[in-house]
Design goal:
heterodimer; A: alpha/beta; Urease, subunit C, domain 1; TIM Barrel; 9-stranded mixed beta sheet; 12 helices; B: alpha/beta; Rossmann fold; 38% helix
Chain lengths: 442, 315
């Protein structure tokens, strides 16, 4: 039977692919046998099955669908930036099949009904699995605990006041204890607001030179330290979001050696770009935490390589074109990341020799899924057929008008990246196919 | 061509030759001030817009006077911060101005980078009249002109800038311009007001006022921006004055011939004693006069003015 992109059959083979999972890129070609949305079988060589439609993906790598623990889909309340449907489309285009959405919407995701609503919106879009994180405190105000158990029943997988730190240390301690009872992690946006003040970029040579207010590393380091000590004292699972400083990597490394139950993530922009990118005052390089110094960038890459940092998360933070037209000090923090994550990872981590492709894929699939307890991130018999076909050699230029996201505030516009997602499958269904002309993909 | 660019956004972008070229023209304009008729018809029929998005009195008046002495048509556009918070972006404003076919835009804005942004979207020339704490090139040039008139070649001359370096666009423009001309720049102030990293621009950083001024040829004393220090960078005006204020005692410790500058407006008896501000060692009003001349020179040069047509200056 002929393979048809127009009508993906219920049962098919993806053949001649190099399987990349469990931290390794296979040397020999292999296959995946998909049946009714699940992986029926997989392995090297050619399966002894005949009569099935075959997607011949010669030259491509097949990896589990990517898992992003940190995205902002802005719905409800800021639908001019992104909605669950467009965010899901961006995820699919970036090879992601599972995402954890942050609760800093308007209003915040702080109760079971809101969580249920988001899960429902995700299912309607049908382009990736949406796992909401709930707010630690009602309205993210930081003065009481939200109904964690109710939200978990509705589908929440973690709790965070992301966008803001939990200033009250006593509340953070209670959140860790309570979440421990329920078996879910607390995600920490580690920042000391009294130190950060009115800062808009990393505090260092470039902020001094440009006359922009600086954000000290100490803000992040001291907040990470506090939360790690609270995790040590309570035994709760603490996950540190978007680590950006050398100091934080070192503190986390020590705590892990001590057996503290901590995991951590880093964003693609923090392992690739430094604060000199702000030199032209472009708000496309304004985010929180900010782009830091080259030694920090190196420390983040090393932390990912040695496992101190468990995974890559994009902190996909869409903003409208108008908002990014504001002057640097007035523009909102945040950049998009879903559609460039693989390319940035291959360009800045694999090509530079920090890690191999197997390890990069692991940091974008199994590791984040496992630490969050998500039913994703693996290529295994019987599991949902969430997988991605990618071309790790393909060079492409990031273009603002090619994004599936509603917003295009990417730090990588105009940059040449290596490595591109060719097609994405969710439960065996096609959710993305690169339609770039001049390149013939299977 | 003395200036190779469309805009004057900062002294970071100007070469030593360009800076000296501008000062030469400014000195020639300065000579015109002593004539009974102080205006020249060079900019007749051209429109200059003074777009001040942040309160300013003396810089705006200085620009306006410079434009009037060049016989330009002038529009003043002073906006309060609040009208912009209602949604109009800087780009909207700029495009509105451009649609009216103006020849030059003078812009003051509270955001670092704003002048550069406008210069990139507009075809007309843009002069930065101060963008946040980033740069204030006309102030930098008038400061350097005032030093140059007294000290000549700035190579090896010692300039000490004292005060709130963190929030000072004047300091940044001085640093860029003076280091390009080969002067030795020292920055001095409490560590809460001197940001890290500026030594990489070729400055010495010294927190002890006595050491910072000992060999100085010039002290450039910055205004303490009392309104910006919500997080309290120093305990009190009284203690600031005691530690970093330029008092008669400090002046007596200077080497002979050293002089004192201040960009204004002054906080008397905070960063500078009244006695010093009114004394014989300061050149503050000369700075003000040079400011008009520098602004005339920049407007003239950006409009394609021919330096040869001005005759020779007095200096």
């Amino acid at each position: 039977m002929e393979w048809s992109w127009q009508r993906i059959p219920a049962e098919y083979l993806v053949a001649n692919v190099k399987l990349c999972h469990q931290g390794k890129l296979g040397k020999r070609s292999g296959f995946i046998h998909v049946r009714k949305g699940r992986i029926e079988a997989l392995g090297v060589g050619t399966p002894a099955i005949e009569g099935l439609p075959v997607l011949d993906a010669a030259g491509l790598v097949c990896a589990p669908g990517f898992v992003d623990l940190h995205v902002h889909f802005r719905e409800p309340g800021q639908e001019e930036k992104e909605v669950v449907a467009t965010g899901s489309a961006a995820a699919a285009a970036g090879g992601f099949t599972s995402v954890v959405t942050m609760p800093n919407t308007l209003p915040a995701i702080d109760n079971g009904a809101m969580v249920r609503y988001l899960v429902q919106r995700g299912k309607e879009a049908g382009l990736c699995r949406v796992f909401p994180a709930g707010a630690i405190s009602p309205g993210r105000k930081g003065d009481a605990l939200s109904e964690f158990a109710d939200m978990i029943e509705a589908g929440a997988v973690a709790f965070t006041d992301d966008g803001s730190p939990v200033v009250n240390g006593g509340l953070m301690a209670n959140a860790l204890k309570y979440a421990k009872m329920l078996g879910v992690p607390i995600l920490s946006h580690a920042e000391d607001l009294s130190i950060i003040g009115k800062g808009v970029m990393h505090g260092g040579y470039w902020s001094s030179r440009l006359g922009l207010a600086g954000m000290s590393r100490v803000s992040e380091d001291s907040a990470v330290f506090r939360d790690l000590e609270l995790a040590r004292a309570t035994g709760g699972h603490l996950h540190i979001c978007h680590v950006s400083t050398r100091g934080a990597v070192e503190i986390i490394r020590r705590a892990k050696n001590d057996g503290v139950r901590v995991t951590a993530e880093a964003t693609p922009h923090h392992f690739s770009l430094d604060h000199s990118r702000c030199r032209d005052f472009s708000p496309l390089f304004k985010m929180n935490p900010p782009l830091r110094e080259s030694e920090d960038v190196e420390a983040i890459a090393e932390g990912l390589a040695d496992g101190t940092l468990d995974c890559i998360a994009t902190d996909h933070a869409p903003h409208t074109g108008t908002e990014k037209e504001y002057q640097f000090d007035q523009a909102p923090f945040g950049v998009t990341g879903l559609e460039t994550a693989l390319g940035v990872g291959i360009t800045y981590l694999v090509k530079s020799g920090v890690m191999d492709l197997g390890r990069l894929v692991e940091c974008m699939t199994e590791k984040p899924a496992r630490l969050m307890g998500l039913p994703s991130g693996l290529l295994e018999e019987g599991e949902p057929a969430d997988f991605v076909l990618l071309d790790p050699e393909r060079e492409w230029i990031v273009e603002a008008d090619k994004f599936q996201s509603m917003s295009s505030n990417s730090s990588f516009i105009g940059e040449k990246l290596t490595g591109k997602v060719v097609s994405t499958f969710l439960g065996g269904r096609l959710t993305w196919r690169d339609s770039t002309e001049n390149v013939k993909y299977p | 061509m003395i200036l190779q660019c469309k805009d004057v956004l900062g002294l970071e972008d100007m070469s030593a030759e360009e800076i000296l070229g501008v000062l030469d023209i400014a000195n020639r304009f300065r000579a015109v001030f002593d004539r009974p008729v102080r205006s020249v018809p060079i900019m007749r029929g051209r429109t200059v817009v003074n777009f001040f998005h942040e309160p300013s009195t003396r810089t705006r008046i200085s620009f306006e006077l410079a434009e009037k002495r060049l016989s330009a048509d002038i529009i003043n556009f002073v906006s309060s911060e609040s009208s912009f918070k209602k949604g109009e972006t800087l780009r909207d404003t700029a495009e509105n101005l451009a649609a009216m076919k103006i020849d030059m835009l003078i812009v003051r804005h509270s955001s670092a980078g704003a002048a550069r942004y406008l210069a990139d979207v507009l075809e007309c020339s843009v002069i930065n009249a101060g963008d946040g704490p980033h740069e204030h090139p006309t102030q930098g040039l008038l400061d350097i002109m005032t030093m140059h008139q007294r000290l000549g070649d700035m190579r090896g001359k010692k300039v000490t800038i004292i005060g709130d370096i963190t929030h000072s666009r004047v300091a940044r423009s001085n640093i860029w311009g003076l280091t390009k001309l080969g002067a030795e720049v020292t920055l001095c102030g409490p560590p809460t007001m001197v940001p890290g990293g500026l030594d990489k621009l070729g400055c010495r950083i010294e927190f002890d006022l006595a050491k910072a001024v000992r060999d100085a040829d010039v002290l450039n004393v910055l205004r303490i921006q009392l309104e910006r220090h919500s997080s309290r960078a120093f305990p009190s005006n009284r203690e600031y004055h005691r530690m970093f204020g330029i008092s008669p005692d400090v002046v007596r410790s200077l080497k002979p011939g050293a002089f004192i500058m201040h960009p204004g407006p002054m906080n008397r008896d905070v960063e500078i004693s009244s006695e010093v501000a009114d004394g014989p060692n300061q050149v503050i009003l000369d700075q003000v006069a040079n400011g008009v001349a520098v602004r005339m020179a920049l407007i003239y040069l950006l409009s394609g003015g021919d330096p040869g047509a001005l005759g020779s200056g007095s200096n």
